[in-house]
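Action item from last week, closing it out:
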Amino acid sequence: MVDHRVFNFAPGPATLPEEVLKQAADEMLNWQGLGMGVMEVSHRGKAFMACYEEAVADLRELMNIPETYAVLFLQGGAIGENAAIPMNLMPLAKNGPKADFVVTGIWTEKSVKEAAKYGQVNIAASSAADGFNSIPDQKDWQLSEDAAYVHICSNETVGGVEFQYVPKVSKPLVADVSSNILSRVWDINDFGVLFGGAQKNIGPAGLSIVIVRKELLGHAMPITPIVWDWTKQSESDSMLNTPPTYGIYLAGLVFKWLKRQGGVAAMEKQNIAKSNLLYNYIDQSSLFTSKVHAACRSRMNVTFFLKDETLNDAFVEGAAKLGLVNIKGHKSVGGMRASIYNAMPMKGVEALVAYMKEFERGC
């Protein structure tokens, strides 16, 4: 048990800005003078609709999303959208439902498996052969002429690889941006669809976000459940069913917090500085190492390993005693993982590096 805030390096649900949590706590019992919390008011009432509309407007401002794109606040997470995407987009293919995938880790593997239920999937490229420690060079991708879209995961939380560029493809680019949305500047016009769960860089688990070019709407398969039909959700302002109201409220607070920090461009500079600090130490260390190719290292999920893995448990236990928690890597790859999303302050990364140096000196 601890009686203070720790530095939480969890990959998701992840740390949230402290001032956002304090505001949410202050408003828990009495939001906007209504005498009840935001999760208790009608989702179609005037107060909550204003909250929803402001959150959408702030996200549009932060990401410079033009009106040619619909912004949807939904449920089901990225896993749910792995089904919604092929059901909404695969009918756009010329010769029957089909899509291309660039597989760079566990999450794109899951996307492929789900999409295969609804049409043909083409693995245009995969880095499985090197343990998902790289991203295949785009010149080697084998894209289909008749695919409806090209699917990527912009940042793989498990392996710690991230696209450092936006691929240029002739078909709509669909990107799972669950773990690096709002962490770096993108030109939204380069994408057909961006989607992801909110529980890493935006808010609590339960909210998912879809940003879709409007011209791609209106093609859902007849079997598409109404809650996964983006056209229906867009027409109803994401209110087709009761949305995750508390998640939308908290996301809105985070958007306001991001604007106070200077917006996405300012956050990108901070994220570069935080990740560089950690990677620079790992690269010169005699005890720690990174397996990910330098050109595609994630700024959000820094994976690293102790060269002597018998020290893993001692390293994790020692970190926890200092309030550096949830740094153990995913069970499928082992090692360590420090998730340093927007809300992780530089002080947290500095504390982790200081501990790593101390641990190495003691070995």
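Closing note: Residues 263-284 form the longest helix (22 residues).
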